Structure formats: C-alpha cells, structure tokens
Backbone:
DNA sequence: ATTGGCACTCAGCGATTGTGAGTGCCAGCA
DNA sequence: TGCTGGCACTCACAATCGCTGAGTGCCAAT
C-alpha cells in the first residue's frame, strides 16, 4: 500500500506509461496477439479511457518500447520493451511451496551426476514449457577428488578422473610397454597425493617433475599416463551440455520453418550452447538476454534466461532456458533460479 | 544388358507396373509432389504413352500401392507402396569409397565410447539428413571386463563397472561403516576374479555366496557393494540412447505443428526410442518400419530404418534414423548399414 | 491532462472465377 | 490383347474483389 504513492497526484505521466507497457507485455505474452488500446482498458484497471492509452502508446512507440505490425493493428513489445519489463516492471513470481518441494524431492532421488543433470533438464522443461539447457559442472572449476588407473589389458590402461563435483572422466591410455602393476599402483598413489583437492586447472604444475621420480626404464608409461591426464584435465577439457524440451519449440507460432529450423540447428552445437549459457560466474543471479541482445544471428527471435549454479555459491556451471522473446520472463526466471539453487545444494552434498 | 529380358516379349504387364511404382516412389521422394502420368513418361524411359501409364496407375491404386490426394492430382505412394519398393524394387545404393573412408576415419579419431557414439550420431544425421538415434552398447549384452572400487571418503565408495564394449558405469555406495581399505582391495580382487569375462546378465549368480567368504563384521559393507553392483549390472540396467539431427525435422513440409510436435515429443522419451530401435539381434541386416507399421500413433507419418551393431557380428545395441515416410530408403539403408558396420569394427578393437 | 467523437487504414475473411494439371474412358489400331 | 490418341470432366489452387471490424491518429471540448 505504501508504494501506491500518487494516485492522481503529480508526475503521473511516466508512471502510467510504464504501467501501460507492463500491461502490453503481459497481455501479449498471454494472447500472442497484438494488443489494442481498448482491450487494455478492459483487462486492466488503468482508470483512464482508451484515448488516453492511445496517447501513451504513441509515446511508448516513439521511445521504441513497442511497435505496430501494421497500421490497423495493436502494439507488440519490442526487444527494448521486454528489456524494460524485465529490468523494472516485472515482479519476480516466486514458486509455490508445492513446486519447491517437487523440485527438491525430484532431484534428491537422482543416483548419480548424469541422473541429476538429466532430471534438472526435465524439471526446467516442465516448469517453463521451454527448451532447457544444463551444463555439467565444468572440470575447469572443479577440484580433483581421486585419480584411478586400471589395467584393462597388457597394453591398455584406463585413466579415471573423479572431480569433487561428481564428474567422472575416463580416457584410454595405450601403454608403450607391458603394463607393470606395481608401477601402476605407485603412480596412482603419487598422483593422488599430489593432486588431491587441487583445482583441475593446476594439474599440470602439480604433476610437474613427477616423471623424473621414476627410474629411466619406467618413464615411457608414466609419460603416457601424464600426457593423457593433462590432456583430459587441462588441455582438452570436455564441457558437456544437455538439451531437452525441443518439442516445445513446436509451439512457436505459425511461421515455423524459418524460425525454428535455425534455432534447432544452433541447439545441436555444443559451442553455441556454451556461449548461450554465458560467462557469468555468480550463482543466485539470473541473466536474461533478449532477442537481438543475443550474439547469434539465428537466435535473434529468442530470449535466453540463464544462471550459474554450484555448491556454496561457487558457480561451477550454468543452466538456463531458451524460448521466444515473447515468453513468461518472471516465471522462467523463477524456475531457473529455483532449479539452480537446488542443484547447487545437491552438489554440495556430494 | 542381360537383365533386360523381355522388351516387348511376354508377361510385360506386371513387370512394367512395378517399374511404374518404382518411378513414382523415386519421383515423389525427390519432388515431394504428387506425380502424374505425363511427368512420369517424360522423366523415365518407360517406352509407352501416358495413357498406358494411367491404366497401370489405376491398377496400382486398385491394389493399394498408390493413392490420390484428390481427384485431379497425381499419385503418391501409400505405405504399402513404399513397402513394396523397399522389399522388391529398390537397389541398395552403395556408398562411395570416399564416403566409406570418411566414415572410417571420423570414427577412428574418437577417444572414448562417448565420443564414438556422439560421432556416429553426427555421421548418420549428415549422411541421411535425418534424425539419427544411436544406442550405447547394452550392458545386458556386454561382458564384465573390470570392476573397480574407489574409496572417495571415509563413508563413501565409488563402484566402477567397465564392460568389454567400452561402457563405463559408476555408482556411489554409502558405506554402513568406516571404509576399510584392505577389505576393499580384497573385495575388488575377488570380484574381478569371479566376474572377469562373465556376461552382465550372469553377475548375480557369479557373486552368489561371495558375501559369506568374509568375516561377519565385514559383511555389511560387502553386502552394500554387492547390492549396488547387482542393481547396476542386472536389475536396473541403464540403457542409454543419443538422438541428433532434430533440426532435420524442420524440413518436413508445410503441415508442421501437427506432424512435428508429437514426433519431437516422442523422441525425448527413452522408452519410445528404445522400442523404435527394435528388438533385432542380428548385425548386418537393416530393418525398415514404414508409417503405420510403426507401433506408436505419433509415428504414423514416419519411417524408421534400423540395424543392430556390435563387434564380430554380435549385436550389442542398435542404431537408426527416423524420417518422413517419404524418404530416400536406399540411401538411408546404405548409411545405416555402413555406420553400423564401422561402429562394430571400432568396438571390436576396444 | 483527459476524453468523446470521428475519419481513416488495412489485414483477414469469404465468395467468386479462371486456369491447368491430371484423370477416366473410349474407340481405333497393331 | 494391349497400346494409344483424343476428349470430356474434375477440382485444387491462385488471383481478384468487396466487406467488415479492430484499431489508429487527430482534434475540439472539458
């Protein structure tokens, strides 16, 4: 009640114009049709006539917040209009306690990281009815929990890297010589001593000089192991991303092929996905990129809502949803934030 | 030349009708438009007039191989028509040596199983321009190569299962007591002795009685490990499937939303995917399911081309492509067969 | 600053018509 | 018996037209 400052007092102009913009965004998102002045005064209690609204609309159009598809049609928000809506006008709709509980228990049931990620994607698609993207915890931001070496055959060793975030990477290593089990045990022990709790990024330095600790004739195998280790942990770190809910793109609109095809195509490219998710390093904060704010030409008609996530506010990866610019921002932001938060807690428990 | 048996000799009727059917399928697949009698005689050297073709077409329609979208339109093949085409009329177009080499080298570059599967999907989508599905080697048809137990924390053990097909499964095991490293080593050694080269399906029997070999006070941990092992290897075997090329669905046609949405949705369901890939156990053989032959209502407008794959003719999983019934069957079949074959070879090398 | 009134615009819809691709049938021919 | 040219017929699709109504911008009045 305190916020209702000036009902009919002063400087109303700007305030109401923004209320009109908000109303336009909300109605357009709901109906997917251009909204006219008449419809606005009917559906929202703005306390003025449609003519007044028309004046406001003309002003809003002048400032670039809304546009007309054609002369005798209502207005639709521009990207700039959505931006204003997201930054200033939208109140974040909190999820219901029931929803929160559902999220929590659904994620709790997961048995391993793959499962957690898969379930997160599912949650996001169902909560937002949009395309969801979840990145696996980045190795670059994880720490080494354990290194395992397994001799699979006389000339083959499997290198297994386990991160504190639950990620498990494996690489085959072709051994230059017959595998020597005691040596393997020795290497394993030293690696674990040296690497325990080190960041993946520091693996290279941490193992520096390790090779020289072994007698000359053992070094080829040690070198091969270290090379693969460094490649997996530092040089060619494999980012993994999972996409789900592509079916939701089919609810796009009428102009299908042109709009959806490039988007679907983009969503198959790991690189694109990672850049879409962005570079944000904070958890808790939710980022929104609207239409043309996006760096990819194919994504000009879509908006992206993302957030970092990780244990204890340490963002180790990102997740988000992709949908048409005409989307329910408050709802999507709430869902993304909630899933990111619970996902972080799950990781913290690991 | 030898095959051209009866140019104007005897029993031509049926033979030419089938040639007409083949021509209709080929033209329709190429143009996506109903094909008329005139167009047929122009584009194919059938040696007869369009009127004759019309008679043949009437007969083919009578027999249910082709249909007319509406009276004054050309004909399109029915599912039955495609079936005949696939079974009798199509010559399998072999891939070019260049294509074969490309497949081989692209798969060779893969570093681990994940990578191999991912690359296979990519190959299939690019070769066929359709949606590709590749199943990971099924654990139920794999053998145990190695079991690893890693103590990650005082009360947590990571169980790692490595299959001869390259699959690696991991499960967390919460230990009922402080983890005892020598015990772990003992369990690991016995498990590997007992399980080596056993089929996953036989794991349960193979470890039968193992628990009793340990002193009473050690048994809780052993029991927990065995329970998780059995669950992962036998009871809740996780099938994994990767889908790619969904963007290709966007090239479907004009009647988008109705057709594509359900298909996209179906492709997000693991269960559906696995049933689509089918139960075939032979490698080498390529299966085709056309339109209504499919068991899912949502898939009535699509065809599925699948094959088993695996090392040395032992099918350990399936792969395939999904596309509109109007698809290039010879090409798709050739691609599926080729990728399955090379994939099998790669697995054999593992 | 707001409002009612009014003239104006124009996308979308339905009805109408013309065109052409394609068909089925038939009588004549090899 | 099988093939062919000819012909009348059908009907989807495209183009054209007029109408309607939602929505606008502007203005004079309050």
Residues:
């Amino acid at each position: 009640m305190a916020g209702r400052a000036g009902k009919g007092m002063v400087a109303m102009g700007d305030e109401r114009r923004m209320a009109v913009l908000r109303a336009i965004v909300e109605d357009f998102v709901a109906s997917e049709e251009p909204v006219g002045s008449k419809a606005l005064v009917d559906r929202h209690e703005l306390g003025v006539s449609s003519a007044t609204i028309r004046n406001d609309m003309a002003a809003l159009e002048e400032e670039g917040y809304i546009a007309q598809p054609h002369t005798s049609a209502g207005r639709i928000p521009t990207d700039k209009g959505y931006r204003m809506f997201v930054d200033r006008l939208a109140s974040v709709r909190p999820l219901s306690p029931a929803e929160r509980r559902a999220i929590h228990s659904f994620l709790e049931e997961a048995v391993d990281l793959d499962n957690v990620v898969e379930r997160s994607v599912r949650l996001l698609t169902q909560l937002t009815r949009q395309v969801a993207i979840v990145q696996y915890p980045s190795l670059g931001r994880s720490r080494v929990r354990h290194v395992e070496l397994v001799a699979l055959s006389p000339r083959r060793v499997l290198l297994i890297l386990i991160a504190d975030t639950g990620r498990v990477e494996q690489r085959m290593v072709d051994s230059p010589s017959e595998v020597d089990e005691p040596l393997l045990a020795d290497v394993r022990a030293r690696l674990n001593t040296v690497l325990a709790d080190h960041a993946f990024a520091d693996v290279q330095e941490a193992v520096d000089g390790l090779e020289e600790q072994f007698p000359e004739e053992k070094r080829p195998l040690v070198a091969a192991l270290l090379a693969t280790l460094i490649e997996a942990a530092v040089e060619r770190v494999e980012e993994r991303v999972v996409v789900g809910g592509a079916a939701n793109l089919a609810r796009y609109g009428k102009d299908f092929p042109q709009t959806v095809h490039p988007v679907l195509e983009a969503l198959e490219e790991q690189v694109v996905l990672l850049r879409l998710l962005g570079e944000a390093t904070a958890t808790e904060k939710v980022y929104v990129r609207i239409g043309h704010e996006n760096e990819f030409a194919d994504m000009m008609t879509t908006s992206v809502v993302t957030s970092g996530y990780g244990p204890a506010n340490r963002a180790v990866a990102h997740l988000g949803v992709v949908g048409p610019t005409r989307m329910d921002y408050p709802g999507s932001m709430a869902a993304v934030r909630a899933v990111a938060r619970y996902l972080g807690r799950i990781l913290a428990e690991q």
Summary: The interface with chain B takes residues 111-112, 145-146, 148, 150, 152, 158, 160, 162, 168, 170-172, 244-247, 249-251, 256-257, 260-261, 264-265, 267-268 of chain A (CB under 8 Å). Chain A has a mean pLDDT of 90.
